[in-house]
Amino acid sequence: MANEDLEQPQSWNEIGILQRRTIEAAIIAPIYEELAATIGEASAQSVIDKAIRKAAIAAAQSYALKTEGGTSLQTFQDLQVLWTKDDALEIEVLQATDTVFDYDVHRCRYAETYKAMGLGHIGHLLSCNRDAVFCQGYDSRISMKRTQTLMGGATHCDFRYTFDAGANKRV
User: Fold this and answer.
1) Distance CA 37, CA 130 (A)
2) Which of 4, 19, 32, 129 could form a disulfide with 15 if both were Cys (CB 3.0 to 4.6 A apart)?
3) Are 104 and 94 in contact (CB under 8 A)?
4) Distance CA 45, CA 63 (A)
5) What CA–CA distance (Å, rounded) separates 138 from 162?
6) 17 vs 15: CA distance, rounded Å
7) Residue 4 has what pLDDT?
8) How far apart are CA 50 and CA 58, in angstroms?
């Protein structure tokens, strides 16, 4: 699935997610460091994790509201252009149907950026932990499984999304 093959609604002509995450990380870094110094690293990571997950759900719900005609796995696939913008991810799509969207990420500039910023130890909190809750916030009929990430030291990330059309959509 090439980015140029995706139709992009006008509202999606915004900065890419990589740029957004870089800006957010620069803001979060001193907050995280202060939290870690005050309440300990484990508690600081827990606070950041919870806040980022809540933000991911809110962002997903916002994208869902902007999706004309309702959400589906196909409209979710169309959003991927935001995450791959600026060559942020090198992906290999393995399967893309109405009910399955599987791909592997072979290069992740999110992980590279966090490491360059000295935030590699919390990069999974800043990006990876958003993924499963994002798809649930976008459309509760979408679920994601992933067993490994580049951020965690694996050779690739394995994203496996499924869409259960028969399930009741939670709003």
Assistant:
1) 25
2) 19
3) yes
4) 27
5) 13
6) 7
7) 37
8) 12
Check the CA dihedral 156-154-59-162 and report its sign. positive
The amino acid at 28: I
Rounded to the nearest 10 degrees, what angle do helices 41-66 and 17-39 cross at? 150
Q: Where do runs of H (alpha helix) occur along the chain? A: 17-39, 41-66, 73-84, 109-116, 123, 130-138
Q: Provide Rg for the chain, Cα atoms.
A: 16
Cα 22 to Cα 134: distance, rounded to the nearest angstrom: 18
Query: Bigger pLDDT: 56 or 171?
Result: 56
What is the token pair recorded at 104?
């592997």
- For residue 6, is pLDDT > 50? no
Q: What is the pTM of this model?
A: 0.86
Residues 118, 92: Cα–Cα separation, whole Å: 28
What span, in angstroms and rounded, lies between the C-alpha atoms of 71 and 139? 6
| Whether pLDDT at 13 is above 60 | no
Contact 85, 6 (CB under 8 A): no
Residue 8 burial class via C-beta count within 10 angstroms: exposed 0-12, middle 13-18, buried 19 and up: middle
State the Cα angle at 81 between 80 and 82, rounded to 5°: 85
pLDDT tens, 81-122? Answer: 999 999 999 999 999 999 999 999 999 999 999 999 999 999
